[in-house]
Amino acid sequence: YRALIAELADEFGVTHRSLRHYEDLGMLGPERVGSARVYHRSDRIRLQLILRGRRLGMSLPQIRTIVTMYDQPPGEIGQLEYLLGELADRRADLEQRRRDLEQSLATRTSRSTTQKRRIAARALDEVPSGGAILLDSGSTTLAVAALIPGDARLTVVTNSVQAAALLADHPHLDLLLLGGRVRGVTGAAVGTWTTSLLAGLSV
């Protein structure tokens, strides 16, 4: 395998600048032939590892550790063990951030209730009879749902399980609940299923 910088950049969809940057960091080692950089099979494998690490959200120092293991003991097994350890740490960090965010959202729900009701009432004034509204999850949009009259004739689209529960017994509503993975505290349906359903709507 032999490739010039333009060929390798085109194959992986990266810039020449990125390849030179990875070289400066010691993660790629192309052969110099005159003024040209010639990349070999080992560089191609290293670049695959680099881009995989970037997709996983790893830092360049972490990726460099994995790439360095390619040529040195403990080799591929060491790479996998290190990668699994880093992914476990990252997953734990993301889970903690999610818990912190959901706790923050729960706290917001209990604050400024009067102001949120006032905002919700103003928002409903703008919706004509027979109109359609899209309600995301959140404390203010939940206040909107709570204020929709029982005899309202509307189409309501929402990803909020809580909002849907408030509106389920309204006889004249056309209520559409978007599917997806439901988050615990927020009660919101999220994920690719939810976004794909939204993409097909016009509200």
Give a written overview of the molecule:
The protein is an alpha/beta fold and 203 residues long. Helix content is 56%, strand content 13%. It has 9 helices and 8 strands. It has a 3-stranded antiparallel beta sheet. Helix 8 links the parallel strand 5 and strand 6. Helix 3 runs antiparallel to helix 4, helix 4 packs antiparallel against helix 5 and helix 7 runs parallel beside helix 8. The N and C termini lie far apart (53 Å). The relative contact order is 0.07. The model has no long low-confidence stretch (mean pLDDT 84).
**Roughly what is the average pLDDT, rounded to an integer?**
84
Beta percentage is 5-15%
Cα separation of the termini: 53 Å
Rg computed from alpha carbons, rounded to a whole number of angstroms: 26 Å
Largest sheet: 3 strands, antiparallel
Total E-strand runs: 8
Tally of alpha and pi helices: 9
- Spans with pLDDT under 50 lasting ≥5 residues? none
* Structural class based on helices, strands and sheet pairing: alpha/beta
Question: TL;DR of this structure?
Answer:
The chain has helices at residues 5-12, 16-24, 41-55, 60-68, 75-109, 113-125, 139-147, 161-167, 192-199; strands spanning 2-4, 31-33, 36-40, 132-135, 155-158, 174-177, 181-182, 189-190. The model has no long low-confidence stretch (mean pLDDT 84). 56% of the residues lie in helices and 13% in strands.
